[in-house]
Amino acid sequence: xxxxxxxxxALSGGAARGLSHIGxxxxxxxxxxxxxxxxxxxxxxxVGSFLCSGxxxxxxxxxxxxxxxxxxxxxxxxALSNTGIINGRRVERELKKFLKDKTFSDCSxxxxxxxxxxxxxxxxVLTEGKxxxxxxxxxxxxxxxxxxxxxxxxxxxxxxxxxLPTDALKVFDVDFIIASSIKFERxxxxxxxxLDESASGGNIKSYNYHNxxxxxxxxxxxxxDLFRNRxxxxxxxxVSVQSILDTSLNIMHREMxxxxxxxADIVIEPEVGDFGFFELTSGKKIIKRxxxxxxxxxxxxxxxxxx
Length: 307
Description:
Largest sheet: 8 strands, mixed
Number of strands: 10
Radius of gyration: 20 Å
Structural class: alpha/beta
Number of helices: 11
Shape: globular
Strand content: 15-25%
């Protein structure tokens, strides 16, 4: 590799879909890319902290495939408090299996993760202290996980401000940035199927699936008309909290990551839109999407880094 290139990688949020970063990192490793720094937001902070503190990518993938995610999610600790419906104790126990009591200074690769101070509404780039505490803050999805009190600040998921932490990498001396950012275009295929199915009943002939994604107002109008007519056709309640949450998070992630992608020299975008945000049971398939996306960029990576 060209010796003057100090490579950093930004790993986006995306809950279960962020497991695709493992596949991306595997391909980069196989290509001979040496990372000098890693920045992570939310799920990206988990993958990044594991990597930088010594967990191999093979161990990560083995863990993803071995845990009973249905039981894990079913029996996660409910907080039923004013700050979140999940208090995160079980998540913390799983994180501790890998992070133990390690600190940022124990990392073999420079690492940072992003959170948000809920009081000041400012981005916080965490680079010191225990990795467990920092990662737990970075993954605290508002309303789901209780916030983390750290150094006098109340911290939640960094994806609220910087879902793709390319800007956060500026805390390190890197001169080449790779971004691994989840992509949702496959959602369009799922909506197309539902839309065509509904249209066949004559309910929404005035809409066309090609309009989805052109503008957010029109996208939402199409989507909710689609859902409403699907309900009328089936005469049942098929719209779930998860489907609405997934769609909302998809829109926010896409719009918010646009300017952060511009800071990267190479952008790798695993297409994982047909997996739910909390579809951890499909972890192996999601990792595979990460590999596919990184391989598609292999020639560009080799050329730009002089591998």
